[in-house]
Amino acid sequence: MASTADIRNGLCIKFNHDIYKIIEFLHVKPGKGPAFVRTKLKSLTNGKVLDNTFSAGHKIDVVRVETHTFQYLYAEGNDFHFMNTETYEQITLNKDVLDAPDLLKEGTNVMVQINTETDLPLAVDMPASIVLEVTYAEPGVKGNTATNATKPAKVETGASINVPLFINEGDKIKIDTATGKYMERV
Asked: Where is each Elongation factor P C-terminal domain found (predicted)?
């Protein structure tokens, strides 16, 4: 058992008969009354996000997890296939477990968190950014550069990303996997 002082981003806990991952937290010490911790929790079974407030000193049940590097192999419908880079063991995960499945390129390494009690995969941590090639983009119109104008572009994984007007087909762009937004041209 741990307490609210041990809360940190990425910590997996048992809460309301489910396993949640802490996405955000904030320790609050108001001028009047006891301290508390405001958290944003993401369910690892169904992907729902909920806000919860724990009082200071509240006991939380921590789930022990191990992190392993897996390589994304291919997708088959809603199932995504991954291979452990150390043991070459393959696992299949549902699309709902992934944060940004439309940005996964074959051969990409991801970190998979595995529950040590049940040996079941809990969450997939994508790399912070990924480089993808633009397969389709409308040509930019000259004179539309007074503001930060963007246009939709398709990348090699099939995802649609808003990019600046100077991006053309064949360009490689870096995308932030957390927000799914364009970062820079590579």
From this structure: 130-185
Alpha carbons 110 and 122: distance in angstroms, whole number: 13
pLDDT single digits (tens) 102-139: 888 899 999 988 888 888 888 788 888 999 999 998 88
Burial per residue of 30-53, b for 16 or more beta-carbon CB atoms within 10 angstroms, e otherwise? eeeeeebbebbbbebeeeeeeeee
What is residue 32's DSSP assignment? S
Which residue, among 148, 72, 147, has the nearest Cα to 104 in the 3D structure?
A: 72
C-alpha closest to that of 14 among 68, 52, 70, 56: 52
What pairs with residue 98 in β-bridges? none
Q: Specify the length of the chain in residues.
A: 186
Q: Count other Cβ atoms within 10 Å, centred on residue 140.
A: 16
| Contact status, residue 42 vs residue 63, Cβ threshold 8 Å | no
Closest C-alpha to 90, from 73, 78, 110, 102: 73
Q: How far apart are CA 171 and CA 120, in angstroms?
A: 39
Radius of gyration of the chain (CA): 20
- Residue ranges with strand state E in 56-169: 59-62, 65-76, 79-84, 90-94, 109-115, 121-125, 129-137, 150-155, 160-164
